[in-house]
What we know:
Layout: E1 8-10, E2 13-15, E3 19-21, H1 37-48, E4 53-55, E5 59-60, E6 72-73, H2 78-91, E7 96-102, E8 118-119, E9 133-134, H3 137-156, E10 161-166, H4 171-176, H5 191-194, H6 196-209, E11 214-220, H7 231-244, E12 248-252, H8 278-287, E13 291-295, H9 301-310, E14 315-318, H10 320-324, H11 328-334
Parallel strand pairs: 3-4, 3-14, 4-7, 5-6, 5-7, 7-10, 8-9, 10-11, 11-12, 12-13, 13-14
Antiparallel strand pairs: 1-2
The chain binds flavin mononucleotide (FMN).
Flavin mononucleotide (FMN) binds next to helix 10.
Amino acid sequence: MRTLFDSTKINNIELNNRFIRSATWENKADQKGHLTDELLKVYQELAKGQVGLIITGYAFVIKDEQPNPGMMGIYDDSFIKDYKKLTDAVHQHGSKIVLQIAYGGTQTNYRPENRVIWGPSTVPEMATGVVAHEMTKDDINTLVKAFGDAASRAKSAGFDGVEFHGAHGYLLSQFLNPYHNQRTDEYGGDIENRARVIFETYNEIRRRVGEDYAVMIKINCRDFVEQELTFEESLYVCKELSKRGIDAIEVSGGIAAAKELGAQRKKINSTEKEAYFEEYAAEIAEQVDTKVILVGGIRSLDVMDRLLSETKIDYFSMARPFLSEPDLVKHFQEKSKTKARCVSCGSCYTPEGNYCVTFSK
Ligand SMILES: Cc1cc2nc3c(=O)[nH]c(=O)nc-3n(C[C@H](O)[C@H](O)[C@H](O)COP(=O)(O)O)c2cc1C
């Protein structure tokens, strides 16, 4: 029987339990995206708290392409030394750490007028209205190479793996969405074409890091808007990535325009409301031959235990609960808590950094 404290592996990463800190932009990196003491402390606390695997906040792979302030960067080699400090600190406590790598795109309100922002097509982003600069084939090649470079730097810096961000309405997710992607070339049209840039990104990352290094993706099960990546299409992309050898798929959902049906749903105050993408992740886990991670509104041990026995989902990923209680896994292990205290109010964002406003003194 599978349990939450099983020792398992994702490629070569040995994990002490099935709890994952989902990528969480902390808004604590410096202006260029470099590590600060404050940011390092966040990760030290998580590692001390026994989180099996920590996925970092999204790190931008191309300089100046930053959808939010205070994000981590990974756009040149100067980050390698920086992050060695981070990965060493996490490893000291027995946790593992994966770098999330991303290109933001037009779903942003951060300095959009000061930079060229790429997108699949020249359309206003559904929520922000920011219009993309339609990518040429050369731009796509530059993007794919930037992801590969970022992954290679992550490996040199001691990260245990990388997760590329294909969810939540950022650039790769926009390619999958039929409104944001209205291209008529080989990158647009049916899902085989809309997913092409994701397959090319995966292939390039794998080429750069080798077979024995963990490569994961975060992907939407659906976008939850009228013109959306549908579940059938998402399933197709997951199966294709699985065939190509991806090591884990983190299943999320929603883009900013989906509002209350987005990735971070509010008021998760009963077990029935928890794990709001479970039906999709369970079906993906049935159909792919790779590890599946569920994220979104997971709060209590009961729900995770049930999912572990009823489905083939392998891991449980949380973001807001760990902003509030970085030592949550330790409490779960010691049985001093069975549920996160997070009330899913969604007020974690402040200009001074993202943290739990509700429970901070
Ligand atoms: C403050 C904050 C920052 C986030 N930053 C990221 C990010 O950098 N990358 C990402 O993929 N998701 C990000 N998310 C989404 C979470 O990873 C997660 O998918 C979502 O919050 C649902 O999980 P939860 O209910 O456990 O919070 C962020 C969420 C919050 C609250």
